[in-house]
């Protein structure tokens, strides 16, 4: 359940970053890169909390890191491609 919540939050954050960067007249690629860096940092922190506080091993947390990062990044990347085609 926690993974699903984090993935949904990631997609929402990605959409927010894309919206804000578009209003600031930034390229969709710049918005995606900003989101990807920030989101990876959050996911790495989330993994660190799981390993250090919850007592899970790194090998147990790596699949969740991949899901938590890659699913929202793929959605935002697909959105970037669509926005990039329609942008002037």
List the helices and strands and how they pair.
Blueprint: H1 2-23, H2 28-52, H3 58-86
Helix pairs in contact: 1-2, 1-3, 2-3
Summary, kept brief:
With 88 residues, the chain is an all-alpha fold.
Secondary structure: number of strands: 0
Largest sheet: none
Overall mean pLDDT stands at 90
**Approximate shape:** elongated
Radius of gyration: 14 Å
Strand content: under 5%
Task: Explain what you see.
The chain has 88 residues and is an all-alpha fold. Helix content is 86%, strand content 0%. It is built from 3 helices and no strands. It has helices at residues 2-23, 28-52, 58-86. The model has no long low-confidence stretch (mean pLDDT 90).
For this entry, give a set of tags.
88 residues, mainly alpha, 3 helices
């Amino acid at each position: 359940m926690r993974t699903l919540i984090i993935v949904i939050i990631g997609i929402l954050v990605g959409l927010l970053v894309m919206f804000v960067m578009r209003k600031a007249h930034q390229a969709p690629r710049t918005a995606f890169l900003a989101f990807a860096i920030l989101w990876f940092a959050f996911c790495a922190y989330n993994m660190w909390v799981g390993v250090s506080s919850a007592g899970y091993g790194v090998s147990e947390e790596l699949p969740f890191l991949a899901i938590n990062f890659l699913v929202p990044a793929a959605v935002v990347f697909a959105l970037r491609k669509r926005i990039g085609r329609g942008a002037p």
